[in-house]
Amino acid sequence: MAKATSYVSKTADEQGFISWTEEENSTWQKLYSRQIACIKNKACDEYFQGLDKLSLPEDRIPQLAEVSKVLLKETGWQCHQVPALIGFGEFFKLLSERKFPVATFIRSTEEFDYLQEPDIFHEIFGHCPLLTNPSFADFTQLYGEIGLNASKEDRVFLARLYWFTIEFGLLNTEDGLRIYGGGILSSPGETLYAMHDDSVIRKELDNAEQLVDVYRTPYRIDIMQPIYFMLNSIKELDKIGKLDLLALVKQAKALGLHEPMFPPKEQIKQTAKAS
């Protein structure tokens, strides 16, 4: 999980304050302005409720203490400053302690539209509003607890659960399709793609059998997702959390992975060279 990155997280002072440059605050303002317009009538109600509670500044990067103050009051969570990328062990440990890891850097102008590393905009704007929701908050902590005690091999399967729920989850609500995954909510391209592209496959996630399906589904972090999984409501995370998640990992391992719905990276590189 801790791969190489060109970004370096900023360090807070003794009071927990991080000094951001005018350019970095401007990047936040542009990202916020673009994305808040993009997710209108697309993000789930619980997300917007959380956004209202957080009252994130639009013209500057928020201080982690500002966000933590609200999260602690609502669900007992807080933001925790981390380097640009961290390992699985630390990631699970922090989640199990209701500490949400936030890398304290913001993307460069060159990677304004997309970057693979989760920056502070992705973490705060994409995830923190829903951490004010009890079902989402409890599920995220439970995920950390389970991952902390899982084997290295099992963690690879568990990563798919996080990917297809917390990062790229959709809701099939009475008002239509809505987004709750932070990886979609912080990306204008993925927002429009997940909601409107006719090539996208959207599967229900409602029971143990479908959860095994999630565990068996490969993904890539550097492409638009060809498949998404849908809950009917955020509260269904409570039901998923009551399943024996590691026992279902064992079933998925016995069945094996589904055929990927995308070419491997090397094949893409070779195709590009030939064209």
Comma- or semicolon-separated keywords:
single chain, 275 residues, alpha/beta, four-stranded mixed β-sheet, 6 strands, 49% helix, 10% strand, disordered C terminus
How would you portray this structure in words?
The protein has 275 residues and is of the alpha/beta class. The protein has 13 helices and six strands. The strands form two sheets. Strands 4-3-6-5 form a four-stranded mixed sheet. It has a two-stranded parallel sheet with strand order 1-2. Strand 1, helix 4 and strand 2 form a beta-alpha-beta unit. Helix 10 packs across helix 12. The longest helix is centred in the first third of the chain and has 17 residues. It is globular. It starts with 21 loop residues before the first helix and ends with a helix.
Radius of gyration, in angstroms, nearest whole number: 18 Å
Amino-to-carboxy terminus distance: 32 Å
Please trace the helix and strand order, writing H or E for each element: HHHEHEHHHEEHHEHEHHH
- Give the overall form: globular
Strand order of the largest sheet: 4-3-6-5
- Structural class label: alpha/beta
Largest sheet: 4 strands, mixed
Number of helices: 13
- Strand segment count: 6
Runs with pLDDT <50, length 5+? Answer: 268-275
| Oligomerization state | single chain
Q: Classify the beta-strand content into a percent band.
A: 5-15%
Mean pLDDT across every amino acid position = 93
Q: Percent range for helical residues? A: 40-55%
Organism: Thalassotalea fonticola
InterPro entries: ArAA_hydroxylase, ArAA_hydroxylase_Fe/CU_BS, ArAA_hydroxylase_sf, Aro-AA_hydroxylase_C_sf, Aromatic-AA_hydroxylase_C, Phe-4-hydroxylase_mono
Pathway: Amino-acid degradation; L-phenylalanine degradation; acetoacetate and fumarate from L-phenylalanine: step 1/6
Enzyme class: oxidoreductase
